[in-house]
Design goal:
Radius of gyration of chain B: 17 Å
CATH topology of the largest domain in chain A: Rossmann fold
Largest sheet of chain A: 7 strands, mixed
Number of helices of chain B: 10
Number of helices of chain A: 12
Shape of chain A: globular
Low-confidence stretches of chain B: none
Structural class of chain B: alpha/beta
Distance between the termini of chain B: 31 Å
Number of strands of chain B: 7
Distance between the termini of chain A: 40 Å
Strand content of chain A: 15-25%
Helix content of chain A: 40-55%
Mean pLDDT of chain B: 97
Oligomer: heterodimer
Order of helices and strands of chain A: EHEHEHEHHEHEHEEEEHEEHEHEHH
């Protein structure tokens, strides 16, 4: 079967245009990355509600906060590295502390940015965003989910961080699938191990599931598209029933989605865990496919981790 | 005929506000004395003359917006808001205490406080957002943003200055409390700002340079700023840090130190006998 490839930023662009059409209160700001973030699609249709901020991410966050305090729902768009890195204090005080209705859109998340290299690859921003009180953090796994997440975030009170990617990623969800912020999705049942994934790693997790099945290993797969607020119930249930967990994210394993899952499990149902993600290092330039191999983010890496964590579980029994 | 300010009445209010500020800071045992006292006339001239608001409906849609970017000056804002009856004067003595709405730096939620601030440099961007929102809403409100001089070291201020001018936000009126000191010392020694008026002019702003303790000049500047079309206005107010109490004036030690019991008694005496 041929797999359709589409970047999550495209799903965002479509969602934004849809929102602009149905809601008068949507405004969009961009820090000089209007085409790259797909904010341009909104600008073309609703120029009077679009604001170019130039290369000033800090100023953009504050301006978005002021617009939000005037009754608007403001989408502030730039690369994830700059949204969370350059403007973190503004996100902390002007957005999170004040609970302003600003949706921070960080495209170009992870090493799948590719050739532009480490400064442009956001591998730390999920950690920076999720530690802030009042913040919601969403990582759609494909373009369809990104469109739904965009539309849903406009109705989610307070600040939201939406993490999107540059490169085309396989479309793994369907239009009719239900997306609810904070509610993870059980994609595959399984009893030996649970793979919890977000973003493009959801596809890798599904591939790992199929390969493990051939070896008679039953792997549950969960799409944890919202890491804050985190769906504790589905995580604890999976840990109880499978006794071993692998997390997979295109982000540093320090403080990211895997850390969020381990915070839940260490308190409620400690089981052996393995973390797939960037191993406390910066990214580098290259073809995204090659980088995924180099950084250990492929289905093969998940398979190895699954086998390892099952062995650890069995050694404990 | 346009409304005329009652200068003597405004002076009297400014004196009362100063007394509330030193009392409140003494009660709290900590806080920013110098920079609160330097901005008193700037606030009194605004709230008791120019500003459109209804303290009984603090979130009324047609209200003007005041953004305190130099959040550490909040004792002055709290005293003014209490004098305006946004909340009771009795609450002033809860400043900085656990459970109080009067946080050490202002928090949105207290009636009359539009933004949470304290991390410097963020206010003007938010003011621009309010101004753009007002434009979209076809709302004639004005947006005022008070900044400190030390705060102008923050890069975000100048990003925001470009934005106000680019979007021709003539509904924005910036105010600078130019008291010539920052925590580490004199502005000119730490990081000089001059020529400050020319900098704002070069950024596309109309600048009104005034004595920030002369209430007539303050109210006139706000009136003139309202008439400027097509670009934002800045009231560049020369002030004295610790103004009104001789032993606080230009003594940078009192940037972040509250008056003790003896200092409070002397300060109130001076303020009450001041002409």
């Amino acid at each position: 079967m041929e797999i359709k490839m589409k970047p999550t930023r495209d799903g965002f662009g479509e969602g934004l245009v849809e929102l602009g059409r149905i809601r008068e209160d949507i405004v969009v700001l961009s820090a000089d990355l209007t085409e790259s973030t797909r904010a341009a699609w909104f600008k073309e249709k609703f120029p009077e509600r679009f604001f170019s901020m130039g290369v000033s991410e800090q100023d953009m966050m504050g301006t978005a906060a002021g617009l939000a305090l005037s009754g608007k729902v403001a989408f502030a768009c730039t690369f994830g590295a700059f949204a969370a890195g350059r403007a973190w204090d503004q996100v902390r005080v002007s957005l999170a502390y004040m609970k302003t209705n600003v949706k921070v859109v960080g495209t170009h998340g992870g090493i799948s940015v590719g050739e532009d290299g480490p400064t442009h690859q956001a591998n730390e921003e999920l950690a920076l965003m999720r530690i802030l009180p009042n913040m919601t953090v969403i990582i759609p796994c494909d373009a369809i989910e990104a469109k739904k997440a965009t539309i849903a975030s406009a109705s989610c009170p307070g600040p939201v961080y939406l993490r999107l990617g540059r490169s085309g990623v396989p479309v793994v969800t369907k239009e009719e699938d239900i997306f609810k912020i904070g509610k993870a999705v059980l994609l595959k049942e399984g009893k030996d191990v649970t793979i919890i994934a977000c973003g493009v790693e959801v596809y890798e997790a599904l591939r790992a599931h199929e390969a493990l099945k051939k070896e008679n290993i039953s792997a549950r797969v969960i799409n944890l598209h919202t890491i804050k607020p985190i769906d504790k119930d589905i995580i604890i249930k999976a840990a109880r029933e499978t006794g071993a967990v692998v997390t997979a994210e295109e982000h540093t394993i320090v403080g990211g989605m895997g850390s969020a899952v381990s915070e839940v499990l260490s308190q409620s149902c400690p089981v052996p865990m393995e973390f797939i993600g960037v191993k406390d290092r910066f990214g580098e330039s290259g073809d995204p496919k090659e980088l995924f191999k180099l950084f250990g983010l492929t289905a093969d890496d998940i398979i190895k981790a699954a086998k390892k964590v099952i062995a650890r579980k069995n050694a404990r029994d | 005929m346009a409304k005329q300010p009652d200068i003597n009445e405004l002076k009297k209010i400014a004196k009362e506000v100063r007394i509330e500020i030193v009392k409140m800071l003494n009660c709290a045992g900590s806080g920013h004395t110098g920079g609160s006292l330097s901005m008193v006339e700037l606030l009194v001239g605004l709230y008791f003359y120019k500003f459109n608001c209804d303290p009984s409906k603090p979130l009324c849609n047609t209200r003007d917006i005041f953004v305190l970017s130099k959040g550490h000056g909040c004792p002055a804002l709290y005293a003014v808001l209490a004098a305006m009856n946004f909340f009771s004067k009795d609450e002033l003595c809860t400043l900085r205490k656990a459970g109080s709405r009067l946080q050490g730096h202002p928090q949105r939620g207290l009636p009359g406080v539009e933004i949470s601030s304290g991390s410097l440099g963020q206010g003007l961007s938010i003011a621009n957002g309010f101004a753009l929102g007002a434009r979209l809403n076809k709302d004639p409100k004005r947006v005022y943003c008070l900044m400190g001089d030390g705060e102008l070291d923050e890069g975000q201020v100048w990003e925001a200055a470009l934005t106000s001018a680019h979007y021709k936000l003539d509904n924005v009126c910036g105010i600078i409390d130019y008291n010539k000191f920052q925590i580490d010392g004199r502005i000119e020694d730490i990081k000089g700002l001059e020529p400050l008026k020319a900098k704002w002019q070069a950024f596309g702003w109309e600048v009104f340079e005034i004595n920030g303790h002369n209430i007539k000049e303050v109210t006139e500047a706000y009136d003139k700023a309202e008439k400027i079309k097509g670009r934002p206005s800045m009231v560049l107010a020369h002030t004295v840090k610790g103004k009104g109490v001789s032993f606080f004036e230009n003594k940078n030690k009192y940037h972040g130190v509250a008056p003790n019991k003896e200092e409070l008694a002397k300060a109130i005496e001076e303020l009450e006998t001041e002409k």
